[in-house]
Amino acid sequence: MEILSVEHLTRVFGSGEGTVRALDDVSLSIEAGEFIAIVGSSGSGKSTLLHLMGGVDRPTSGTVRLMGEDIYRRTDEQLAIFRRREVGLIYQFNNLIPILSARENITLPALLDGRAVNENRLAELADALGLDGRMNHLPSQLSGGQQQRVAIARALMNAPAVILADEPTGNLDSRNSAEVMGLLRESSERFKQTLVVITHDEDIALMADRVIAIEDGRVASDARRT
Ligand SMILES: Nc1ncnc2c1ncn2[C@@H]1O[C@H](COP(=O)(O)OP(=O)(O)OP(=O)(O)O)[C@@H](O)[C@H]1O
Ligand SMILES: [Mg+2]
User: Fold this and answer.
1) What gap in Å lies between CA 66 and CA 181, rounded to an integer?
2) Contact 62, 6 (CB under 8 A)
3) Of 44, 76, 122, 161, which has the fewest beta carbons less than 10 angstroms from its beta carbon?
4) Residue 43, ligand 1, Cβ within 6 A
5) What rounded mean pLDDT belongs to the chain?
6) 48 CA distance to ligand 1 centroid (A)?
7) DSSP H helices in 86-143
8) Whole-structure pTM over 0.90, yes or no?
9) Which numbered atom of ligand 1 lies nearest the CA of 23?
């Protein structure tokens, strides 16, 4: 079953001489439960694509559909709700809120939605991500890797249908990196989530069901592993 589809997606930044065509007519169909690695050189358009799939930007042209629905038909307010409920986005450079503790950052989407915090899930994630004893710290009191793990916990907290992760292990050493990837896969299997991970790490790309290479804003290759 298709869960996410991208059709003729183009994103142009700037105007006149400074125009950058970050994504150029990209089309993709993603099946529910797939684990996809997105690879490509720096500046090729990977983050731009992930942001558009997560409802954090708007395309210049083309569509992004989640379960058949064109997400960019929504108003900005509806899109904010979409981001809190339907996708778990882990940004390349973590965007934690500096004045909130780890716990508050992780539970903010639920609180904004007026939902109760699932304490069991929170404790489980804190344990699995090695954040026990760090939950009351502010981001500035955490290491880069710990901050990234807080961002991962926030994305996984409400078990969204689609997890979109932009270099989730970029700040982690190899041991922590293997643990974080293990957790993402475990979560995706348990909750039947679709997992899209941008990575420069060969080992992670090798774990994926499918590897999509982006070059110059276009799909250069798209290979399913058998
Ligand atoms: N807000 C923006 N304004 C102008 N140009 C942008 C903006 N965001 C991205 N770009 C440009 O779009 C292109 C694609 O950027 P993107 O962040 O998607 O690359 P990337 O593949 O994620 O690279 P990296 O591996 O370095 O993270 C780059 O040339 C970048 O400079
Ligand atoms: Mg990027």
Assistant:
1) 24
2) yes
3) 76
4) yes
5) 93
6) 6
7) 102-112, 119-128
8) yes
9) 14
Residue 190 has pLDDT above 90, yes or no: no
Ligand 1 in reach of 199 Cβ (< 6 A): no
pLDDT in tens, 106-137: 999 999 989 999 999 999 999 989 999 999 99
Pocket test for ligand 1, best of 13, 23, 38, 219 (most atoms within 8 A of CB): 13
SS3 167: coil
The structural architecture, per CATH, of the domain 33-57+75-224 is 3-Layer(aba) Sandwich (3.40)
Both tokens of residue 186? 């475990």
Contact 131, 149 (CB under 8 A): yes
Paired residues of 166 in beta bridges: 198
Number of H helices, E strands in the chain: 7, 10
- Token pair listed for 129: 């991500």
In whole angstroms, what is the distance from residue 217 CA to residue 9 CA? 10
